[in-house]
Amino acid sequence: MVSGFLQVVARDLRLALRQRADALMVVLFFVLTAAIFPFGVGPEPNLLERMGPGVIWVTALLAVLLSLERLFLADYEDGSLELLVLTPLPLEFAVLAKTLAHWLTTGVPLIAAAPLLALLYNMDPAALPMLVVAMLLGSPSLSLIGAIGAALVLGARRGGVLIPLLVLPLNVPVLIFGVGAVDAALAGLNARPHLLFLGAILLVFLVVTPLAGAAALRQAAE
Question: Which of 19, 84, 93, 169 has the smallest set of CB atoms within 10 Å of its CB?
Fold first, then answer.
């Protein structure tokens, strides 16, 4: 089972490496969208510092949404989805493996770029480790929640439009506690409660996403 899980992850990573432009597009969207905000609100340092955590988290969510439609669509179109359903590896683990590969190719680059954007928003460098920790806990949830939406709309017309409508409300708690953790660090307060909530959300969707995603994929494969 572990071998099959790792094979699915490795396969998706190889495909992502062959299509580097998709991952690069996500990071560029993240950086450019976050960089535009200071031109609209002005260069006042205190204002930029206050809005920085929120802008970074919201643009990270929007960047993740860009890549969700292709999470299962390529397998659906080329017939690989039927093979995934028939393999000895439980489909729930296949969903989790594909979501992990998505996070490695999308979430990790966003985490790497986030501190640079934080400096652009005049954030205290002492709060940068908290931003990274919060995104390490929160960004996997963005991929897990998005995987549910991507599986549910598989085969539907205008699926790319439907995914944000399905997953945005579920992502609100992640944004609230992710921004709250960074704000607490900037204010010199204890960010541990926010991190605990982010961890709890991650644990919940580590269970829910494989079950819901596998059920939706089986329906799409029929």
Answer: 169
Q: Residue 103 is encoded by which pair of tokens?
A: 């996070």
> Which CA distances in Å does 117 have to 20, 49, 167?
22, 11, 25
Domain ranges of the chain: 2-221
- Reference 70, options 102, 96, 93; nearest CA is 102
**Counts for the chain of helices (H) and strands (E), in that order:** 10, 0
Classify residue 22 by burial, with Cβ atoms within 10 Å: 0-12, 13-18, 19+.
Answer: middle
Helix (H, G, I), strand (E, B) or coil at 80: helix
Task: Identify the sign of the CA torsion 1, 12, 132, 195.
Answer: negative
- The 10s digit of each residue's pLDDT in 58-112 is 999 999 998 888 888 877 777 777 777 778 888 899 999 999 999 999 999 999 9
Q: CA 126 from chain center: how many Å?
A: 25
Give the pLDDT band of residue 159 (cuts 50, 70, 90): low
